[in-house]
Amino acid sequence: MELATDRGRVPLRYHQGEGRGLCVLYPGLHYGVELPFLYFSGRAARYLGYDLLEVPYQLTALPQRERGAYLLEVARTTLAWAQERTDRLLLVGKSAGTLVLAAGFGEVRVPAARVWLTPLLKQERVMGALKREPKGLLVAGSEDPLSPIERIEAVRHPGLEVLVLEGADHSLERDDPVPTVQGLAAYLEALLPFVQAALH
User: Fold this and answer.
1) Where are the beta strands (DSSP E) in the chain?
2) CA-CA distance, 146 to 138, in Å (whole number)?
3) What's the pTM value of the predicted model, to 2 decimals?
4) What class has domain 2-199?
5) Residue 9's pLDDT is what?
6) pLDDT at residue number 4
7) What does the domain layout of the chain look like in residue ranges?
8) Running DSSP on this structure, what letter comes out for residue 88?
């Protein structure tokens, strides 16, 4: 399944659940929807009865100068598609996917919560959206240069929960796989009650 836009086609993979809402996954430049933090975000949403929409675009196939405009179209078209099918949205973006969350911030007309995985905090559009986020969860690694701690502190406010995984990099991993998996578990332990509180 795909959506046509002026900037190219947007691929979609839809998985029907119990219809309690719709979770949309927006991947990063080198972090696909099949990788752990996005994959288990989807698993958690389906556990809560949500339908799941994966948006597995391949940004590396586009020239760098075209990626920003393409992500704007991804936000516009996928949010329009989603809001025709649900009255409750859980939006999860990883890295470049957080640019989609920021671009679509004003497009959401139904109750929604957003998960910002390793947001690109050096992008002012992302910073601005996070400062206005009414129901958000920000997850970053303490060793991620694209989500500097001082910028995380600058966007903290009561509407934004923050989870910093100690020692994790931009992929939310550490060299040792055991604390990496522990970090994933800590994320899921934060995600499930966050979604239930924000959208139920």
Assistant:
1) 2-5, 8-11, 13-15, 22-26, 51-54, 89-94, 112-117, 136-141, 160-165
2) 13
3) 0.96
4) alpha beta
5) 85
6) 72
7) 2-199
8) -
